[in-house]
Specification:
Layout (H helix, E strand, L loop, with lengths): L4 H18 L11 H11 L8 H10 L3 H6 L2 H7 L7 H16 L8 H4 L7 H12 L8 H12 L5 H12 L4 H14 L17 H5 L22 H13 L3 E2 H5 L7 H13 L3 E4 L2 E4 L3
Antiparallel strand pairs: 1-3, 2-3
Helix pairs in contact: 1-11, 2-3, 2-8, 8-11, 9-11, 13-15
């Protein structure tokens, strides 16, 4: 069985003692503007923190409010997404800004159920914004937090439903934002895919460290699997096509010419995917970002 209330209380005490030493210096932590936090959560999906700080600051200078983002053409949002990858998130964020403008009066909603209605917003992002911006009593669970739950609390793989309930029970009745932030900080710095158990400040409250055994995290729900090789992948090709189109419209011949390592048939398939995703449009022989 998952750890009981005594184990949860012991872990919470250890986490509270370590909270100060775990804090990371990231500009969106404790930010007073829910829109700024929501943008950071979109950008952080499947992207390393170090790659997000600069684009996040630039994005908020250009789009300081949901309305500013909603009124801009999608092409401007995609241009500011350079270096972040997974460009469907840019389109989803643009659609989210439009929904916030149209359905919520330009104000980021403060309820989990309302946040879940926004395009591209799943359980993690909704709970994060609800907790960090509006003090809602919901637990935040990303890949690293999933590892903490499997290792420190259960010492066995957890299914999705059990991981969710374990996170909520572990949080207890205290303020959600400090707890969730400490869990994210602990996971990002210590309870990673290759854990740093020897220096982890919570090691004495970790069941896996106390009881031993095979690492339960890789087989648990909410724990992502390693990504496939990037070089030569469809992800790389998508990114290179979009990178060229950020500079302006191109003919298909101009667009494919710098991509000699990819055959034209494959380039055409990926281009069609970008069109289907609503990121790119064709006008006669010209290819361009939607909104240009």
């Amino acid at each position: 069985m998952t750890s009981g209330s005594r184990d949860c209380a012991r872990f919470r005490r250890a986490l509270r003692r370590a909270e100060g030493s775990l804090k990371r210096d990231l500009p969106w932590i404790g930010h007073p503007d829910p829109w700024a936090v929501l943008v950071s959560e979109f950008m952080l999906q499947q992207t390393q923190v170090s790659r997000v700080v600069g684009p996040w600051k630039e994005f908020l200078v250009r789009f300081p409010t949901p309305n500013a983002c909603a009124q801009a053409p999608l092409s401007q949002v995609v241009r500011l997404w350079a270096g972040l990858g997974y460009h469907r998130r840019a389109k989803a964020l643009h659609e989210t800004a439009q929904m916030i403008r149209d359905d919520f009066g330009g104000v980021v909603p403060d309820q989990v159920e309302q946040l879940r209605r926004l395009p591209g917003v799943g359980e993690y992002t909704a709970n994060a914004v609800a907790s960090f911006c509006f003090a809602r009593p919901v637990a935040v669970r990303d890949t690293n937090v999933g590892r903490i739950l499997a290792r420190a609390l259960a010492n066995r793989p957890l299914g999705a439903r059990e991981a969710k309930s374990t996170a909520q029970v572990l949080m207890g009745r205290g303020a959600s934002a400090p707890f969730n932030q400490a869990m994210l900080d602990l996971g990002a710095q210590f309870c990673k895919a290759v854990p740093r158990c020897e220096s982890c400040p919570i090691a004495k409250a970790c069941r896996w460290q106390l009881e031993g055994g095979i690492d339960p995290a890789p087989r648990s729900a909410a724990v992502s699997r390693p990504q496939s090789r990037f070089v030569g992948s469809d992800r790389q090709l998508r990114g290179r096509l979009l990178s060229q189109l950020r500079g302006g419209a191109r003919s298909k011949r101009e667009l494919f010419a710098p991509l000699a390592e990819f055959d034209d048939v494959r380039c055409e398939v990926i281009l069609q995917g970008l069109v289907a995703d609503g990121l790119v449009q064709r006008r006669g022989r010209v290819v361009q970002l939607v909104g240009d």
